Amino acid sequence: MMKKTLLSAVAVTLALGLAAASIAEAREGRVRARGENGVATAAAGPNGGAVVRGRGAVQNEDGSVTAGSVGAVRTPGGGRAARGSTTTVNPDGSATRRSGFAAESAQGGVVTSQGSSTLNADGTYSGSRSTEATGAQGGTYQGSTTYNSETGVTRSATCTDPSGTVVPCPRQ
Q1: The whole model's pTM is what?
Q2: Residue extents of the structural domains in the chain
Q3: Using alpha carbons only, how large is the chain's radius of gyration in Å?
Q4: I need a surface site. Which of 157, 160, 161, 165 has the fewest CB within 10 A?
Q5: Per residue in 139-154, is it b (16+ CB within 10 Å) or e — as a string?
Q6: CA nearest 147: which of 120, 123, 117, 113?
């Protein structure tokens, strides 16, 4: 559920960013808007590049505060990227964070990553991140890292060459 929600937010951000970039292509400039809970900025350059960003925070009914930020960019050469994150801080001092990003090069390489972390009220901490990448020629990387303040770091990674053969990953 969390991954779907985060990836949906990143996809929406990317779509909004690309739409804003398309609209802004007609003329170079920058737009900034403030709302009750945050701010959004969009800008377009003369060669088709564009960026859109937003951030905000809200107080929740349970007394916690959630802050979030999103951003998307399109390069003049056709690359695209989007990122998003939310952080919630609870009255007891505990906190959670979720984040993710996706990027695609003009040549076809793609990378996606999502992660989350939790700080408990007692000071213990845990987190994880998973990343997948596919090169323009077809090679892949799939990796994950987890951390727990009591057990330490665990990493795993699998890489393939363009033919799909498992190969050693570059040093982590």
Answers
A1: 0.76
A2: 2-167
A3: 19
A4: 165
A5: bbbebbbbeeeeeeee
A6: 117
